[in-house]
Specification:
Chain A has 660 residues and is of the alpha+beta class. In chain A, 38% of the residues lie in helices and 11% in strands. In chain A, the strands form three sheets. Chain A has a six-stranded mixed β-sheet with strand order 2-1-6-3-4-5. Chain B is 13% helix and 39% strand. Classes of the chains: A alpha+beta (660), B mainly beta (75), C alpha+beta (78). Chains A and C meet through α7, α8, α9 and α20 of A and β4 and β5 of C.
C-alpha cells in the first residue's frame, strides 16, 4: 500500500460522462502525484493548438502524493491546465482544505474537459459523481457561493462537503482569475479561474470519506511528531515587527549568507507572510512604484506596514490541512476606513505589496477591503496589482487620459481611485473591462507597453529579481512564467539541498554581485531549486515546508515512509527534473516559445536604478537563463528539451503508460 | 459502551488532520484557545453524531487524541 | 569526532566550516564550544535566537552527530 489513491476521475462536461481510471504505479514512481500527475495526463490529452477557453482544454485538480499520509505541510492542491494568460502550461497552487477532500473521494486528481451548456457544479461523495445545475449559485461571489452550497448540502451529506469555486471574475472569464476555497484561499495564477468559467463550472464539491493510505503510518507519524514538537516550542518575543524595516535596510547592503531555514517558521507563526512587508520595502526585495521606484519613494511606509498592526486585529490563526504553522488568520476589520466587510482573511504579503508600495498606497485599511473584494471575486491580487500599477503610471505620464479611465484620477497613492478601479475590474465595467485580463492585454490596447510588467504574459510576484537574480531566472525559464514560488537565491540558501542532493551546490557566503554571473554553479543552483520545488509540488508540499530546510521538513524520509520506497535524494531530485521537463514539453507541444519570454527591461535593471539597495544593478538574465537550460539538458538557445535528456528521464516510456 | 475522542491540547498543533479524518464531520477546528502565545483554533465536537470510530485518534500524528469510554446520561 | 552543521551570522569566523557548512568537533562538545570556534559571543547568540535542530538551545547543551545550529534569519513570504 502507498499513499497514492491509484485512480483519477475524468469528466467531460460536454457529454456529462464521467469515468474513473486507474493509474499505473509506474507513473507515480516517475512523477508522484500533484503537479507531476497533472503534467503526465495533460501532456497526452490536451491537443496541440487547443483553445484555453474552449472544450479541448482540461482543468485538473490534483492532490499531492503525501496528502493524507500523516505528514505535515503536505495539504497543498494544484490546479493545472493550458493557460489562457500565457498560452502554455498553467498552474496554480493552493492550501485550505481541498486537497484531502480529493483523496477522500478515492482519487489523486480530477480532470474536467469539455464545456457545459449551462452553469453546473460537480458533486462527488466517493460513491457517486454528479453534474448538477448551478443556476442558484451562478453570479454569487466565491464566498457567497461556498456558503450557499454549504447551506444547501451540509444537511444532506454525511461528511461536510469541501468546495472549490470561482467568483464573478472567473465567471466573466477574467484571464487573471483563480479558484477559491475556504472563503479566502485561492489558486490564483495562470488564469485558471477563466478556464473553469469557460466550462461554466461554478464549483467542485467533494464529500468523500474514503481512507487515505500510507505504507508505514507509524514512521510517517514519527517524523511529524518530531517536527510538530519543535514547532510547538517555537515562539518569538512579541513586538519585534517594528525592527523589520531597519533589518531590511541592513540586508540591502550585506552579502548573502546561508541561513538556517528552520527559523523561518518563527516568522510564519508570528505574522504569516505579511511579516515580510516592511522588510521588503527597505531591503530591495519588494518592488516599489510599478517596479521603477526605490525606498526613497516610500519613506516611512515600512512603519505603515509594520506587521504588528495586523497582529493587533487578528482574531485567530488558522491552518491549512496538515500544517502545524498556521500562517493564515482572520482579521476583524469592521468599521475601518474604506471597509465594507466585517472580516477578511489576513492578506498575504503579495497582496499588501501589490496594492501598497507598488502603487504608493499608504492606506492599510484600503488593502483589507481590496483583499476581501478580490478574494470574493476570485481574482489574483498579484496580477491585479501589477495591472493597476501600470494604469497609474500611464495616467501619471499622460498615456492614459481621464476619458479613458472613466474619469478616475489614477495618481500614485490615490486610494479612492484605486479602490474604484478594483471594483470596475471585478465587474468588467468600463475601463475595468480592459484591465480584467491582465497587464499584457491592457497595454497592447492602450500603449505604455514598456511600463507593463509581465513575463511571457503573466505578471510577476512581489519579489525583485534585481535583489535576487535567481528569481529572474525562474521568472523567465519556468514553464509557467512570472512565478515567484519556484525558487530564489535566499530561499536556496535556507534549504541545505546540498545535504540531500550530490550535485546541488552548497550555499555560500557571497556578495550580491556574484549572483548576477551566469556561472555553471549558479545554473546548478537554479536547477536544483526548480527540481526540488517540482518534487515538493508532486508531493503536495507547502513552500514553507521547503523553506524550513531538509533537516526540519524531511521530504525524502516522508516519501520513503509513505510509499514504502527506499530512494535517496538524488533519485527524488530526478523525479523533480522529470516533472519540469514534462511541463516544458507541454509548452513545446502547445506552440509556446520559451526563447520569446524575457524580463521587461525595467525588471532586468536596464537601465539600473540610481539609488537605493538596487542601485547600479543590471542583470545578465538572458545568459543565466541559457545556462539554466543547459544545466537541465535543454537547448541553450531555444529552451527545448534535448532528445537525449527526454530519453534519459524515461519520458517516452512514461507517456506510453495509459490510464485504464 | 460508547467511545468518543478526548483531546490533550498541550500536544495539539492545530493541523486539522483529525477533523478531516472524521467520516461524519463531527469534529471541527472551532475551539478558540491559545497555543503558547498564539490564538489558535483547536478541534472540538461541532455537532452530535460522533460514531466513536476512532479515526481521528488514529490519524493524529501528535498522539494528542485518545478514545475514551463513556455512557450517555440516562434521561 | 562528530559533525555538526552551523550557519554563523555575519561577522563570525567561518574558517572551520567545510564547503557545505559542516564542521568536526570532539564528541561531547557543547554549543558553547562551537560558539568559541566561530567567535560568537553567547549574548549575541541568545539575541539571535540561537537554535539547535530548530529548538532553542542553551550554550551548555551537548551536541550530537548531525546537529544543525542556526540563528534567526529573515527569509521572505509569498
Amino acid at each position: 500500500m502507498t499513499s497514492f489513491a491509484g485512480k483519477i476521475l475524468c469528466i467531460d462536461l460536454t457529454t456529462g460522462v464521467s469515468e474513473t481510471r486507474s493509474v499505473p504505479e509506474a507513473v507515480y514512481e516517475a512523477v508522484l502525484a500533484g503537479k507531476g500527475l497533472a503534467a503526465w495526463y495533460l501532456y497526452a490529452h490536451i491537443p496541440a493548438g487547443a483553445d484555453p477557453l474552449g472544450p479541448e482544454n482540461i482543468l485538473c485538480f490534483a492532490a499531492g502524493a503525501l496528502c493524507g499520509s500523516g505528514s505535515f505541510l503536505t495539504g497543498r492542491w494544484t490546479v493545472a491546465c493550458k493557460s489562457p494568460l500565457t498560452g502554455g502550461w498553467g498552474d496554480a497552487n493552493c492550501g485550505g482544505l481541498f486537497a484531502p477532500a480529493i483523496k477522500q473521494c478515492g482519487y489523486d486528481a480530477i480532470f474536467v474537459s469539455g464545456v457545459s451548456e449551462k452553469p453546473v457544479y460537480l458533486f462527488c461523495d466517493g460513491r457517486k459523481v454528479e453534474v448538477r445545475d448551478a443556476a442558484p449559485y451562478w453570479g454569487l461571489d466565491a464566498t457567497e457561493a461556498e456558503n450557499a452550497l454549504h447551506r444547501d448540502l451540509d444537511p444532506v451529506c454525511r461528511k461536510k462537503p469541501c468546495v472549490a469555486c470561482i467568483g464573478q471574475a472567473g465567471e466573466k472569464l477574467s484571464l487573471i482569475s483563480g479558484i477559491c476555497n475556504e472563503g479566502g484561499r485561492i489558486a490564483a495564477r495562470s488564469g485558471v479561474g477563466a478556464v473553469m468559467g469557460s466550462k461554466r463550472l461554478k464549483a467542485v464539491v467533494l464529500a468523500g470519506t474514503k481512507p487515505m493510505g500510507c505504507a508505514d503510518p507509524e514512521a510517517v507519524k514519527a517524523l511529524s511528531r518530531e517536527l510538530g514538537r519543535k514547532l510547538l516550542k517555537m515562539t518569538m518575543p512579541s513586538g519585534l515587527g517594528v525592527f523589520l524595516g531597519v533589518g531590511g535596510r541592513m540586508m540591502g547592503h550585506l552579502p548573502y549568507l546561508p541561513l538556517d531555514g528552520s527559523l523561518t517558521s518563527l516568522m510564519f507563526k508570528e505574522w504569516g507572510t505579511q511579516g515580510n512587508t516592511s522588510l521588503a520595502i527597505t531591503s530591495g526585495d519588494g518592488p516599489i512604484k510599478n517596479w521603477g521606484g526605490t525606498p526613497r519613494d516610500v519613506r516611512l511606509m515600512d512603519m505603515v506596514y509594520n506587521p504588528e498592526h495586523i497582529n493587533r486585529i487578528e482574531m485567530a490563526k488558522y491552518h491549512c490541512y496538515s500544517c502545524p504553522l498556521g500562517c493564515g488568520g482572520k482579521l476583524n476589520i469592521r468599521g475601518r476606513q474604506h471597509v465594507t466587510f466585517d472580516d477578511t482573511h489576513k492578506p498575504e504579503y503579495e497582496t499588501i505589496q501589490a496594492f501598497g508600495a507598488l502603487v504608493l498606497n499608504k492606506s492599510r485599511d484600503s488593502i483589507y477591503e481590496i483583499n476581501e473584494l478580490l478574494n470574493r471575486a476570485g481574482m489574483d491580487t498579484i496580477s491585479a496589482g501589477n495591472t493597476v500599477a501600470w494604469a497609474v503610471e500611464c495616467y501619471e505620464k499622460g498615456i492614459l487620459t481621464r476619458e479613458q479611465t472613466d474619469g478616475l484620477e489614477l495618481t500614485w497613492g490615490n486610494t479612492e481611485a484605486i479602490l474604484t478601479l478594483v471594483h470596475k475590474m471585478i465587474d468588467r465595467e468600463g475601463f475595468g473591462d480592459a484591465l480584467a485580463d491582465g497587464v499584457k492585454q491592457a497595454s497592447e490596447k492602450f500603449g505604455g507597453t514598456e511600463y507593463a510588467m509581465h513575463v511571457g504574459g503573466q505578471e510577476p510576484g512581489m519579489h525583485d529579481a534585481r535583489n535576487d537574480p535567481q528569481l529572474g531566472v525562474h521568472y523567465v525559464a519556468e514553464p509557467a512564467p512570472g512565478k515567484h514560488t519556484v525558487g530564489m537565491g535566499i530561499q536556496y540558501g535556507a534549504m541545505s539541498l546540498c545535504d540531500i542532493c550530490s550535485w546541488a551546490p552548497p550555499a555560500k557566503l557571497h556578495s550580491k554581485k556574484d549572483d548576477i554571473e551566469d556561472t555553471e554553479t549558479m545554473a546548478l543552483v537554479s536547477k536544483a531549486n526548480a527540481c526540488y520545488t517540482m518534487l515538493t509540488d508532486g508531493a503536495g508540499g507547502c513552500y514553507y515546508g521547503q523553506m524550513m530546510g531538509v533537516h526540519m521538513w524531511k521530504l525524502v524520509d516522508y516519501l520513503n515512509a509513505a510509499e514504502g520506497w527506499s530512494y535517496d535524494g538524488d533519485h527524488y531530485m530526478e523525479v523533480g527534473e522529470r516533472i519540469q521537463t514534462l511541463r516544458q514539453l507541454f509548452n513545446v507541444k502547445q506552440g509556446y516559445d520559451p526563447a520569446a519570454v524575457a524580463l521587461p527591461r525595467r525588471m532586468a535593471g536596464d537601465p539600473p536604478l540610481s539609488d537605493g539597495p538596487l542601485k547600479g544593478i543590471t542583470l545578465r538574465n538572458r545568459e543565466q537563463v541559457s545556462a539554466h537550460w543547459k544545466a537541465f539538458g535543454w537547448d541553450e538557445r531555444t529552451g527545448v528539451p534535448l532528445p537525449e535528456t527526454v530519453a534519459r528521464l524515461g519520458i517516452p516510456e512514461l507517456l506510453s503508460l495509459e490510464g485504464s | 459502551m460508547k467511545k468518543r475522542p478526548k483531546f490533550d491540547y498541550l500536544y495539539c498543533v492545530s493541523c486539522g488532520i483529525c477533523a478531516q479524518a472524521c467520516p461524519v464531520s463531527a469534529l471541527g477546528m472551532a475551539k478558540e484557545g491559545k497555543a503558547g502565545k498564539y490564538r489558535n483554533l483547536f478541534p472540538e465536537p461541532v455537532k452530535e453524531g460522533c460514531i466513536g470510530c476512532g479515526l481521528c485518534a488514529k490519524a493524529c500524528p501528535m498522539g494528542a487524541i485518545e478514545m475514551e469510554d463513556y455512557e450517555d446520561d440516562p434521561r | 569526532m562528530i559533525r555538526v552543521k552551523v550557519f554563523p551570522p555575519y561577522g563570525c569566523d567561518r574558517s572551520a566550516l567545510d564547503e557545505r557548512s559542516w564542521m568536526e568537533v570532539e564528541e561531547g562538545s557543547t554549543v558553547w564550544d562551537v560558539l568559541k570556534i566561530i567567535r560568537l559571543s553567547p549574548l549575541k547568540a541568545k539575541l539571535l535566537l540561537m537554535s539547535v535542530n530548530g529548538e532553542r538551545a542553551s550554550p551548555s547543551q551537548k551536541l550530537k552527530d548531525g546537529d544543525v545550529i542556526g540563528f534567526i534569519a529573515p527569509v521572505s513570504g509569498g
